[in-house]
Design brief:
Elements lengths: L4 H14 L4 E5 L2 H12 L3 E7 L4 E6 L13 E3 L8 E2 L13 E6 L2 E4 H6 L4 E7 L1
Antiparallel strand pairs: 1-3, 2-3, 4-8, 5-8, 6-7, 6-8
């Protein structure tokens, strides 16, 4: 049996987000760490800490101060183990007319769709967030 660690991570974040939890623990993999760092860089997540002893990542979710609404509206897996999706830089789709972020695994690491287009890099379309 194979496990899809990316889908597991996205589901954990989505569930914690729905319950308005402040933090969520995610199993550590290089891919998960890279994706979560992109989320932090784009402002969807507040903070990330790797816990060496338990081999997990502690993710602190971000909520608006006044309304207590989450910064994450939707989180979606695109490329799945049964159907991998790849795209060239020029053919990369926009998420929500540029308001969302597409996370792409490239030869230069895990980047956003804008960074990949800027560097003219294609790759596997991992997930989208808005």
């Amino acid at each position: 049996m194979q496990n899809d660690t990316i889908s597991d991570m996205l589901t954990r974040i989505r569930n914690a987000n729905t319950l308005q939890k402040k933090t969520v623990l995610i199993p550590w993999t290089k891919m998960n760490e890279g994706i979560v760092k992109v989320f932090v860089k784009e402002g969807f997540i507040l903070d990330v800490q790797r816990e060496e002893e338990t081999n997990t990542i502690l993710v602190t979710l971000k909520y608006h101060k006044k309304t207590q609404k989450s910064s994450i509206t939707n989180l979606q897996r695109i490329s799945k183990p049964g159907l991998r999706l790849y795209s060239k830089a020029k053919d990369m789709p926009n998420v929500l007319g540029g308001m969302g972020v597409l996370v792409v695994s490239t030869s230069k690491g895990i980047l956003t769709d804008r960074e990949a287009k800027q560097n003219q890099l294609g790759g596997e379309l991992l997930c989208s967030i808005w």
